[in-house]
Amino acid sequence: MFLRKGLVRCVVVTAPFVFCALAAQTRAQSQNEYTNSISPPFKTISIQPTKSDIHADRLVKTSPDKVTVTNLTTQELIRGAYDVNDDQIVGAPSWLNSQRYDVDAKVDKAAEGEDTSAEGEDSPAGETVQEREERMAQALLSNCFKLAAHREARLVPVYELVIAGDGPKLRESDPSRADSAFRVIQVESGRIVGREVPIATLARILSDELGRPVLDSTHLGSHYDVTLQWPTAPESPKPAILAALQEQLGLKLVPQLMPKEFLVIDHVEMPSAE
Predict the structure, then answer these.
(1) How does pLDDT run across 20-47, given as a tens digit for each residue?
(2) Is the backbone of residue 91 left (phi > 0), alpha (psi -120 to 50) or beta?
(3) Among 60, 121, 165, 199, which has the minimal tally of Cβ within 10 Å of its Cβ?
(4) How far apart are CA 77 and CA 62, in angstroms?
């Protein structure tokens, strides 16, 4: 299970399931650079806007002959099928993350040509369970949502966390107290206070505060008792945080560019309603 991932016509129904017959090959498959060339043909698919509450279970189940989707948006399906995060999906229309669907798709085992005599074996040879699940979900997206997408590396701004010229001003945590108290990190407006804080954790907190990835390049492996405070103001907190970080902790944030992989949506359609 993941969640973490000829022309085909799918019908959205609002009452009982309506099934649509599917051809073995899909137009969108040829358009989609990252749909596996061996995509499972589906014998029938039913898809409908979910009637479940937004807080109800949301999941995808796959088996050798079936894919079941419960209470998921198209964007959640794409996330699982392509193993990406929301901030890696580019070109998505607004409806992609609003309308939720229930889907029941049955694989045409005969058309797929899969040998089912050895239960539990992956197909094609060497394919892992996760790879098969992703492949089936990609085929489902291609069939019912006409999804075509490609992966693309783009340069994005990040901060590199390094030691400032005067050296670190960090207080290493007392190892004898490591088991006597819980690690506590408090993040408030204009303040970060924590015990037993690894630098990698501090980098993640700074990333949240600054709205930009922070990469730890300090090579500091200990845990530290940290107090960092900066003046709050209506304008951006970035200059204040950067100055406080260097003055109080002896660390510096250096702007950099790094490549990041994105999934670019070339084409996607809402399932047609009849």
Answers:
(1) 334 333 333 334 444 444 567 788 889 9
(2) left
(3) 165
(4) 13
Q: Which of 253, 154, 153 is nearest to 207 (CA)?
A: 253
pTM over 0.85: no
Kindly report the number of other CB atoms within 10 A of residue 43's CB atom. 19
CB-CB neighbours of 215 under 10 Å:
17
SS (H, E, C) the chain: CCCCCCCCCCEECCCCCCCEECCCCCHHHHHCCCCCCCCCCEEEEEEEECCCCCCCCCEEEEECCEEEEEEEEHHHHHHHHHCCCHHHEECCCHHHHCCEEEEEEEECHHHHCCCCCCCCCCCCCCCCHHHHHHHHHHHHHHHHHCCEEEEEEEEEEEEEEEECCCCCCCEECCHHHCCCCCCCEEEECCEEEEEEEEHHHHHHHHHHHHCCCEEECCCCCCEEEEEEECCCCCCCCHHHHHHHHHHHHCEEEEEEEEEEEEEEEEECCCCEEC
Residue 86 identity: D
Residue 62: band (very low, low, confident or very high) from pLDDT cuts 50, 70, 90: confident
Pairing of strands 272-273, 11-12: parallel
φ, ψ dihedrals at 169, nearest 5° = -120, 45
